[in-house]
Amino acid sequence: MNRTLAYRLENVAVQHGWREVLHLPTLEVFAGEILCLVGPPGSGKSTLLRLLAGLQRPSRGQVWFHGELLNYPMPITVQRTITLVFQRPLLLTGTVRSNVEYGLRIRGDAQRHQKALAILERMHLAHLADRPASAISGGEAQLVAVARALAIAPEVLLLDEPTNNLDPARVALVEEVVLADHKLRGTTVVWATHNHFQARRAGSRVALLLDGRLIETAAATDFFAMPRDARTAAFIQGQMVY
Amino acid sequence: MGMRWFFILCGILVVCSGCLNAPEKCITLATTTSTRDTGLLDELIPRFRAKTGIEVRVVAVGTGQALEIGRRGDADVLLTHDPAAEQRFLHEHQGTSRNELMTNDFVLVGPPDDPANVRAAPSGADAFRRIGQAQAVFISRADESGTHHKEKATWLAAGLEPAGDWYIRCGQGMGAVLRMADEKRGYTLADRGTFIAQRAKLNLAILHSGDPEWINRYSVIAVNPQQHPHVKDVWAAEFITYLLSSEAQQIIAEFGRSQYGEPLFRASRWPLRNGH
Amino acid sequence: MTACDPELWSIVTLTLRVTLVALVIASVLGIPLGVWLGLARFPGKRLFVALVYTGMSLPPVVVGLLVYMLLSRSGPLAFLEWLFTPQAMIVAQTVIALPLIAGLVMGAVAAVPGDLVGQIRSLGATPWQVRWAVLREARVGVLFALLVAFGRIVSEVGAAYMVGGNIQGHTRVLSTAIMMETGKGDFALALALGGWLMVLALSVNLAAMRLQGRSL
Q: Taking the model in full, what pTM does it have?
């Protein structure tokens, strides 16, 4: 595995009012890996992803990206290498095609039509290209959101439980497309999921978050085969109630 | 996309606003509403423009506001009807000349059945006294206009301080006050011109007139260019000369005769008298 | 003047011109201000927002008086010689419309979900691209703001009368003509003019609805 660091977080905390929703003494994300974040709802996965995406300023601590200390808001050149897919599709007003083209259009990409169409075809959405985004189903919209993120060919792809409300065939499609992109371009992926089978299938490493704290980080096989922490064991054996 | 159309529209409109420019020669006349509302200025101004090419822009407001506009230098000529206030204006060196243009008179109007019996009053002050004693409804302009000042002077002469439910301070123009008097079956003091012009729509009658104190003098004032360098004093002087000319004076003297059966104003310099 | 003759036509076109030019200027200033206020966070924002909301209920006569004093020959902007001209009316109506547009656009922009703003940023939008995209998402609210502002200034009479002077053929607009004819007691003509004002407002609203239908 390539051991170059994409992210390094030191003593990072995020506070909402008086409540500390995230507290990470240290976290490393390697370039070109797929790091799966697991943990119950409210454990801080979304906050961590927003932090990595540059949308959430840390209350304290430092975030390094490729060895450079990050300032928030991120410089646009850095921002444009990272993209986050939210739990909800959050499509813009306009057609499906214009949504998938959006990231390319604001970058002034002349080939945006071909690129968008290619990704739409790969996700079996080409027939919806000219439909208004408001007129497609929730599952289709979620796929469009993933396609929109992949269209800009990000260096870092952050996924916040994008397959939550999808049927199994579409879950498989998203996993297939993301893994293929990762394989082809060496994309760094941080993938939050509440489904630890998905983490086992997709992740090169898995990290468990509980109450905003990192409990255990390990290679995917080790994480599930021989958890070091009792809470990890409880989580993967389904004994943790959430 | 809607936004694009919106901005195209913006562009067109901003270009269009260029068409709003003013013509070369024009002066601003601040006047009382009565001269405009009766239609007199519509007779005089087009003829003046045809003669001289000068456009006159009429801003019709109360006499108080007209003098204030003049004081700030925002008009070139004033046409007002409050001699005392006009004298003050001249004493402040705000005006260079004041010429009496025309007169009409104030009349006491009220319901034709005349509940306070003012028809029998020997003078205007006595008529007001009767209204006050009968506590009959009286509508006051209460707007510091020339008419309002004359009304206050008459109450003073009557020795009465009008107050009570019967005395309504309206705060509006002559037309609105006449209609309120009609609705409330009350009395009011009006200038004859405005009353005659609106008489057809009102169930009011002239109940007292002819008091020598009730003369309504309209004067034309040139705003002082020394106070306000922007004032177009040459064109303003041309306009004043025209208003005082026998042609304009004749129009004033005849104005309203065909429409209302009697003239609304008495021209101050027509028919020509000795000394003018 | 009768209910339809050339003088009426000049009043209607002037009304439309003055109102729309004021609306355009107020939009060019007010929409960006509203978007900025809807998105930005800075100390003192609440005070600023309170000021904008207060401006939304500023009495037009007060605006008229202030603009009068500014443009008067005794005022600081006397050199423009704009008093009693359509330009003065445009200035006054712009001042009336500006806080209205800024405030309503701010509300529309603030109603765009925060996650959607984050999503737009995360797709690589620069701050200006974020503002533009959010404005597009809020455009029904923006259109509504423009219609409210149009309705307010097209029917506004106090400031228009004060700074325009209601000069025949020059600064007489529908609202001031209605007031004048009412004052003269010619209710029939005043009502007819009121009808024209409604026709004007209706056509602008219909045009706006077409625009909205096309872009939704």
A: 0.84
